[in-house]
Write a structure and sequence with these properties.
Helices cover 17% and strands 45% of the residues. A 7-stranded antiparallel sheet has the order 2-1-3-4-5-6-7. Strand 3 and strand 4 form a beta hairpin. It is of the alpha+beta class. It folds into 2 domains: 46 residues, no CATH class; 68 residues, no CATH class. The site of zinc ion (ZN) has 7 residues, from loops.
Length: 122
């Protein structure tokens, strides 16, 4: 069975990625953190009502096709999932759900540019 850790906090072990994410986001109050499991790492970023999860596929455009943002070759393809917080009538609570922009493959920098802009403090 896979176990999950919050990056930089290896002593605390979780049985699922969601548990680790929830602990990092809500108990530790982090808005930018990593989750690791075996050799796999996800980087999460919370921006307002949105949450982004990005990870390397470990492969290039040869396998995944060109970057979906710039249409160029990528030697390392990343996958990004976009979620937005909202009220679920089914679960009767607030939770994250996938958006229409939910699943993109491409260069890490290109994917990061598709994110909602952070509010800039003046
Ligand atoms: Zn690109």
């Amino acid at each position: 069975m896979n176990t999950y850790h919050i990056k930089g906090n290896e002593e605390k072990v979780f049985n699922s990625r969601d548990e680790a994410v929830n602990f990092a986001q809500y108990d530790l109050g982090l808005n930018h953190f990593g989750i690791t499991s075996n050799s796999y790492t996800w980087e999460l970023k919370v921006i307002g009502d949105y949450r982004y999860r990005i990870s390397s596929t470990g492969d290039s455009s040869e396998k995944y096709g060109k970057c979906q943002c710039c249409n160029k070759h990528a030697s390392e393809m990343f996958q990004q999932v976009e979620e937005k917080i909202g009220y679920s009538h089914y679960l009767k609570r607030t939770c994250y759900g996938l958006t229409n922009n939910k699943n993109l493959f491409g260069h890490k920098e290109c994917l990061e540019q598709t994110r909602k802009l952070e509010e800039v403090a003046i």
